[in-house]
Amino acid sequence: MTSARQTPAGSQQPPSARREQLLELAYEFVKEHGLADMSLRPLASAIGSSPRVLLFLFGSKDELISEILRRARREELAFIGDHRAETGSGIAAVVERTWQWLADPANRSLLILWTEAYGRSLTDPSGPWAGFAADTVRDWSELLAAAQSPDHRRSAAGAAERTAALAALRGALLDLLATGDLERTTAAINLVRRQLAPHGQARCR
To answer: Which helix (H) or strand (E) holds 13?
Structure first.
């Protein structure tokens, strides 16, 4: 959720329509060009604004980056929300649907940004991407957990199963982004799905 802007006096001001418009434009710009060495001047020029306006609306470059990453996470959470109610068929089915979304070329720029922010949050935990990696692990783990039976979800075996599924999805995604080899990475995910299917439907004893 987009936060209200802090005024110099410390009070909060609701986000304006112009701020939301510029955030969307900045988000699209960053998806195309990445976060590395992002400078306010070329960004502002590309989205029809100025560095002064961006600083007035967002407070700082770091806060603008934080807002862009929150915007990216909202897109990720929208997928999770759409599929949370469909997870009764088990964790293997969730892995299959999630991989279809991850492998969709329409989501490629978002996932490249996600990968960059994930790495930056590990190497510079004090920056505007702080906590991004941990937040996304939690988001996806909760989606996978919703596919498990209540008893299995609370068990150590259930946690290990979710971790294995998430590791497979994340690793295959990184491979796909690096190589473009959809056939091989999809085959790997299908192998993982077959291994998970009996356990995803079994109840913890």
So the answer is: strand 12-13
